[in-house]
Structure formats: C-alpha cells, structure tokens
Design brief:
The protein has 137 residues and is α+β, with helices and mostly antiparallel strands. It is 26% helix and 26% strand. The chain has one domain. β4 and β5 form a beta hairpin. α2 runs parallel beside α3. The longest helix is centred in the middle third of the chain and has 15 residues. It starts with 6 loop residues before the first helix and ends with a helix. The relative contact order is 0.17.
C-alpha cells in the first residue's frame, strides 16, 4: 500500500471501484445515493453488475456490515483456488498499525503456515477492494 495516499485519494479509489469490470453488486449490499436524494438507500435483492436509472451513481455503504460481508465473499469467490491450501481461503488481518491486510494462507517449504498478501488498506473495505481489483500473479 502507498503510505502517502491521503483520505481523499482513498475515497476516490473506493468510489471508482464500482466501475471496475470485476465489480458486482451482491444481494444484501446497501446502495446509497439516489439521483437528487444523496442519503436515500436500498438493499440489493439480486446480483447485478451495474445499477441503472436514478440509482446509477449509487455507492456501496462501506460501513455497512452486510456490504462488507458481501465484499469479502466476492473477493473469496474471485481469488479462490482449489490447488491452494483450503481452496485459496482468504482472510483479513489487522496489524499493530491498524492497517488491514487481505491474505491467503499457505504452507512454506518447511511445512509452516505462511501468508501471501494480496492487498492492504487503511480500512477493511479498502483492503478488500484493492484485492478485488488486483491482477493475479
């Protein structure tokens, strides 16, 4: 993660992430911002790539627990790999600096447990979004 990213840059990245081709709205996510009504919101009932009409510019509520859970599920679905430990299981860890890391556990050459970092961020949502839009190694 670029430690020099300011809060505005982070927010801009997160807002633009819904335009990424890998983005998908999942059932249960909270969409905020109807045309002319910036605080209006609704929960998605079915999976869709884009929102349309008065909701076309809506953003996910990054503080909503259900939306974060859906985002974690989407990252796991994107990065899952049956050839890796636990099918490429994804975890989110927070370190002593309060940074969040999206990791995949694996066994190292000595048989110990190690972690491959997919992405990091200042918030759990940012770290998950960075993992979602990241290219595979």
């Amino acid at each position: 993660m670029d430690e020099n990213l300011d809060e505005a840059t982070t927010r801009e990245f997160m807002d633009k992430s819904v335009l990424d081709p890998k983005w998908v709205w999942l059932p249960g996510m909270k969409a905020v911002g109807r045309k002319g009504m910036p605080k209006a919101w609704f929960r998605l009932e079915e999976e869709t790539r884009r929102l349309y009409g008065d909701w076309a510019a809506a953003q996910p509520d990054w503080n909503d627990p259900a939306t974060l859970g859906c985002l974690l599920y989407h990252v796991r679905r994107t990065w899952g790999n049956p050839d890796r430990l636990w099918n490429g299981h994804i975890e989110v860890h927070r370190d002593h600096r309060n940074l969040y890391f999206v990791v995949q556990p694996y066994h190292d050459d000595q048989g110990g447990l190690a972690y491959h970092t997919l992405a990091s961020g200042k918030t759990e949502a940012e770290a998950l979004l960075r993992a979602l839009v990241r290219e595979r190694d």
